[in-house]
Amino acid sequence: MINESLENLIDESVNFNEIYDQIKNQRRGVLHKIIELIIDSSNDYRSQKKQIVEDVCKHFGIKNYSEIQDDFGIAYNNIPKPYLDIIRKFLWIDKIDIFGILKQLEMPAFIKFCSMLEDKQKMRILVFTAFVLIAGVAFLKWKSSTPNQSPKSSRKQPLNRRRTPVIDQSIPTAICLVVPASEAYKLSLEKSIYRDEIIELIAAASDFLCIQQTEASQLSVEIDPDQTPSPDSKLKFYLRIDIPDGKAIINEKTKYVIKRDLPPNTQGKIKELGRLTNISSISSFNRI
Description:
The protein has 288 residues and is an alpha+beta fold. It has helices at residues 4-13, 16-23, 30-41, 49-60, 68-78, 81-91, 106-115, 119-145, 181-184, 195-204, 213-216, 255-261; strands at 173-180, 192-194, 207-212, 223-224, 236-243, 267-276, 286-287. Strands 1, 2, 3, 4, 5, 6 and 7 form a seven-stranded antiparallel beta sheet that branches.
């Protein structure tokens, strides 16, 4: 058991067993599905189900095709600290500093250990996460609809002074991925690729790296560019996607953050594609 008080809180909030029967052993779009089920079971939200689900999922970047590891990334970033600490202790992640591991590795460790839990424990964490996210969005909606009664609002405001505009400089970025042949067989060099397609490829990647294009040109990934990927092949293919600006995702270590912060309406181009011939040539990549 993760913690009896946490389990009791989940059971008081929703009918866990009823939800679990509909999500057990599911591996894609789990958090999205749980949010739908919770909203559907609530008399308060049922009439606005579609809109509420859309609002919650859009706010937190939740997709109906996301991997369960991505869902645990959202859990790590949004579960209130007292309850996150309970889960961390259960997973022994609270001991992480004893071994001198850098703090930034805690989130990948959390995701990995959660993914190794028994199925019912995994789903308890995600059900609790969904409940927290729904409550958070409901609070934000309530707060935004409440008029500001501050007495200071009637005071005369000083005139705005002109400010020198800050130029937001773009950083050309390369998204380097290793994906199964089944995900690469429709791709070709110089093909334009849109945000949703890029996100799907990131989700399917076993190894990934986001760096500036100038750095990507220095990589020595060993590939066979002449081998065509087949939809039923298990071979690994390397591809490099260049986008005009990806400063928010450069050097990010988790697929969840990369997908979340990938610029809206971005369009990329495939600059490299080929069968990976030497796995040691991607030793600098992040790996699931």
